[in-house]
Amino acid sequence: MTAIRARRSLALSPTAWITWAGVTVFLVFVTALIVAVVVSSFGTVWLGTWLPAGFTGKWWEQTWSEFGLGSTLLVTMEVALLVVVISVALGVPAAYVLARRNFPGKRVVSLLLLLPLLVPPITYGIPLATLLYQWGLGGNMTGVVLANVVPSLPFVVLTMTPFVEQIDRRVEDAARTLGAGTPRILVSVLGPLLLPGILAGAVMVLVRTVGMFELTFLTSGADSQTLVVALYAAKSGAGIRADQTVDAIAVVYMLSTVLLLLVALRFVNPTQLITRVKDD
């Protein structure tokens, strides 16, 4: 009987088979695209064959020296981390106010927070870049960070608001009766409870910032461009340089994004941090 039940549990419905087949095809397709880009970045000539005619590492050397990928990677990490810190530092208190307080114009504020997420970045990116250049903040690291905070801050606020709403108000009331003020409640009482949402929002903002192109492109300069802007610059000049250099930058971009995400998930683990806070 146990064997029969095990065989029945392994049996899948036609819908499940179709779903898994679709997922498998999608994963194979995406993997094939990534492998093709990686192989092309090391290839010499690749025309109508399964593999390139030869392999070489000169495209990587040329790309690294021509585009200064070392400094570009450093700028990308600095911008991403600064955007995450600013967005979380401002977004969590703002989410608390929206979740716990009623004030005139609350719906208008919520609508304004949605606009940077609903409107294409290029539509407000051009006037934003113009304003930053007028203030002397365009073309440098400060302008790039501020431009990327515009869509990231509302993202954190809207992500954190449901997390705040699901916490019982009586927890805060109990803390207030013991003399805790709002800042102390946010840090010591709600902080550990909101930690999973904060970490989830931070990781998503991190990946979003690394992939954000329009706002960074409009506000960056020669020493403040991120990796995605360098990739666009290589692609736009593909007619005067080999396509393999573009593939090499694409591989660096994919690897840096994956590694940055893995590091964030490895060292910022919600379960481990919550356990550590409880133990303390």
Automatic annotation (TrEMBL):
PROSITE patterns: ABC_TM1. It is a multi-pass membrane protein. Gene3D superfamilies: MetI-like (1.10.3720.10). The keyword Transferase does not apply. Residues 73-264 form the ABC transmembrane type-1 domain. It is found in: Cell inner membrane; Cell membrane. The chain crosses the membrane at residues 20-47, 67-99, 111-133, 145-164, 185-207, 248-268. GO terms for biological process: transmembrane transport. Its main location: membrane. Pfam families: BPD_transp_1 (PF00528). GO terms for cellular component: plasma membrane. It comes from the Bacteria. Keywords: Cell inner membrane, Cell membrane, Membrane, Transmembrane, Transmembrane helix, Transport. Belongs to the binding-protein-dependent transport system permease family. This is Putative spermidine/putrescine transport system permease protein. It comes from Actinocrispum wychmicini.
